[in-house]
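Much of our argument rests on the idea that a fold can be written as discrete symbols. Part of our work consisted of pairing the sequence of a single chain with a tokenised description of its backbone. No coordinates are needed to read the tokens, only the vocabulary itself. The record that follows shows the chain in one-letter code together with its fold in token form.
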Amino acid sequence: MTETTAGTRAPVRWAHVGLNCRDQKETEDFYTRWFGFERARVVEAEGDRVIFLRSGDAYLELFATEADALVPPEKDGPPNPGTARHLAFQVDDVDVFLGRAEGQLPVTLGPLSFDEFIPGWRTVWVSDPDGVVIEVSQGYTDQSPQELGQYS
């Protein structure tokens, strides 16, 4: 929610993440194959093409670029301020997801279990064709309001 000039909160909804891609087709194929996205819109203006992909209420906006990556994909993503560390998706079973990939996804870290925080929470990190690190998890749950009340 955002504050309006009258001091009341206005609803805000997540819109999309914009990704720079060296090869829009390769990146589109990656997110379609592994994460179930589908093309929702293509916008062309002044010789540039922007592709919107959709999965449920989540959108990715793909921009073409010839620039080199600022940081290499590693572990759970770059720790640099001002950059996204990683994108994250939930699956029912990380091992089934990796088995379906048959070694075709570059794993940057894991899989790791976080049972000490949440029983059954398990995560692996992979990277897309442009080096964006993607967290794939199973079993994450929110804390209860009472648990959250312990933190300031």
